[in-house]
Amino acid sequence: LWPLLLSFCMILLITGCIWVLWRIIIRQKKLETMKNDFISNITHELKTPVAILAATNEALLTFGGSKDPEKTERYLRLEQDELHKLQGLVDNIMALTRLEHEEEPQDALEPVVIPMLLKTVVARFSGLPGVQINTSMQVVQEELLTQPAALRTILSNLVDNAIKYTPSDVKQVDLTVTEHPQYYRFIVKDHGIGIDKAHQPYIFDKFYRVTQGNLHTVKGYGLGLSHVKSLLDKIGGTIKVDSYPGQGSTFTIELAKR
Ligand code: ADP
User: Fold this and answer.
1) Residue whose CA is at the smallest distance from ligand 1 atom 8
2) What is the rounded distance in angstroms from the CA atom of residue 48 to the CA atom of residue 78?
3) For the Histidine kinase domain, which residue ranges apply (predicted)?
4) Which of 236, 131, 219 is nearest to 175 (CA)?
């Protein structure tokens, strides 16, 4: 009986190893596809602003800007918009490089006044059509010690997603801060498309997008949340998501007090 039992255990062990290896290979392959998608999407998106900039510049040089100030201003505004787009793309590529090399610069800890922080984050998005950001705050100590730029980026990324993934005309986002004995809790809640349970464990992975594989109707590279996660690791925070398809998503951050 013993040899039989032993061979059975061996077979079980070998099958287990093969299964684990197989999962690793599949995961690597998936990451590779997502990376390739990222490169082809970003290359595609770089082309348009560069082409527009080249065309407007040539037009400005040809008709001689000073002769028609109105037209000149229109062209310059167009160029400014395209330059902003390029800046956004470059920021994304830089975020990727940082993620690849795990070399996020360490900022010093500084006091952040929560009402000011919320104001700054809201101001970035308040000009966008249909966007309504409601803030609420229940804190005793309004000043917290953290890396300010990192915390601003984290909240901005979450609000940006909340807006991006709310297709309705009115995009309502609730941004709440509460204070607890050991930590501050930040909640970003939207009423958008939501995320299926099956996808939720992966959305913080690099390049993971719920509709991946081709050009998404919502632009993105699947880097925002992984950047958020790595920043939170550095400043001592955690993040979790609660979401239901068709109802919206709630991202909750708990930032340890220093
Ligand atoms: P990106 O938005 O650039 O695709 P992220 O890393 O920020 O990348 O998000 C990963 C994926 O998680 C998104 O592609 C999207 O499918 C999903 N997601 C993130 N935030 C939300 C949200 N607020 N509502 C619905 N889906 C979301």
Assistant:
1) 222
2) 12
3) 41-258
4) 131
